[in-house]
Amino acid sequence: LPDGVNISKEARSAISRAASVFVLYATSCANNFAMKGKRKTLNAGDVLSAMEEMEFQRFVAPLKESLEVYRREQKGKKEARKDKDKKADSDEQDKSREEENDDDDERMEEEEQNDEEEVDN
Amino acid sequence: PGPARLARLPLARVKALVKADPDVSLASQEAVFVLARATELFVETIAKDAYMYAQQGKRKTLQRRDLDNAIEAIDEFAFLE
């Protein structure tokens, strides 16, 4: 929004709620694509498909760009961790930290922040 | 900074919403990121659209009714009704 524009408390709260609804709706939509692909894990592609489905096609290009930046960042983090591991575990094989093939489309990164969470539903 | 910014919305909040869906078992980290980023774009869009109504009313403060008007008028926001 341009400078000097204010947002009332009620408007702010309404936007916040709208954003939550957006996430819930987009998730549900994306999940349909995952199920269609017989996958149990929602991936980035599913979310992009959901955007098109929800008539937010104009989001797709900027989202793809952001995703590329994100992937490069994650890769950088991974390399940094690999180096740390090499120094720390020179003797033992750290099998619990599996390094995924970077060419995979569906990359499931495993980081300190546990990001794939199984939901017991 | 270009168009490809990293998300500013906290990913943990987005992830919590994803987990709230009983049909979803797992979501990749990338999926959560793209969702967060999409939500930012959504917020930008709806704020901008609502602001047009504030401008019509010659106001510089976005009010709740501006959002209501935008939601009613714009097809993509029908899911919010």
TrEMBL record, chain A:
Keywords, sorted A to Z: Acetylation, Coiled coil, DNA-binding, Nucleus, Phosphoprotein
Compositional bias annotation for Acidic residues: 99-121
Task performed by this protein: Accessory component of the DNA polymerase epsilon complex. Participates in DNA repair and in chromosomal DNA replication. Forms a complex with CHRAC1 and binds naked DNA, which is then incorporated into chromatin, aided by the nucleosome-remodeling activity of ISWI/SNF2H and ACF1. Does not enhance nucleosome sliding activity of the ACF-5 ISWI chromatin remodeling complex.
Localization per Swiss-Prot or TrEMBL: Nucleus
Presence of the UniProt keyword Coiled coil in the record: yes
Origin superkingdom: Eukaryota
Subunit text: Component of the DNA polymerase epsilon complex consisting of four subunits: the catalytic subunit POLE and the accessory subunits POLE2, POLE3 and POLE4. Interaction with POLE4 is a prerequisite for further binding with POLE and POLE2. Heterodimer with CHRAC1; binds to DNA. Component of the CHRAC ISWI chromatin remodeling complex at least composed of SMARCA5/SNF2H, BAZ1A/ACF1, CHRAC1 and POLE3; the complex preferentially binds DNA through the CHRAC1-POLE3 heterodimer and possesses ATP-dependent nucleosome-remodeling activity.
Any one annotated GO CC term: CHRAC
GO-annotated biological processes: DNA damage response; heterochromatin formation; leading strand elongation
Keyword Acetylation: yes
Ranges annotated as biased composition (Basic and acidic residues): 71-98
InterPro entries: CBFA_NFYB_domain, DNA_Pol-Epsilon_Subunit, Histone-fold
Primary location group: nucleus
Transmembrane segments: none
Organism: Halcyon senegalensis
Name of protein: DNA polymerase epsilon subunit 3
GO molecular function, one term: chromatin DNA binding
Segments for region (Disordered): 71-121
Domain Transcription factor CBF/NF-Y/archaeal histone residue range list: 5-51
From TrEMBL, chain B:
A single cellular component GO annotation: epsilon DNA polymerase complex
Chief subcellular location: nucleus
Keywords, sorted A to Z: DNA-binding, Nucleus
Domain Transcription factor CBF/NF-Y/archaeal histone: 7-71
Gene3D superfamilies referenced in this protein's UniProt entry, alphabetically: Histone, subunit A
GO BP term (any one): DNA-templated DNA replication
Keyword Translocase included in the entry's annotation: no
CDD domains listed in its UniProt record: HFD_POLE4-like
Annotated Pfam families: CBFD_NFYB_HMF (PF00808)
Subunit structure as annotated in this protein's UniProt entry: Component of the DNA polymerase epsilon complex consisting of four subunits: the catalytic subunit POLE and the accessory subunits POLE2, POLE3 and POLE4. Interaction with POLE3 is a prerequisite for further binding with POLE and POLE2.
Summary of the function given for this chain in its UniProt record: Accessory component of the DNA polymerase epsilon complex. Participates in DNA repair and in chromosomal DNA replication.
Protein name: DNA polymerase epsilon subunit 4
Lineage of origin: Eukaryota, Metazoa, Chordata, Craniata, Vertebrata
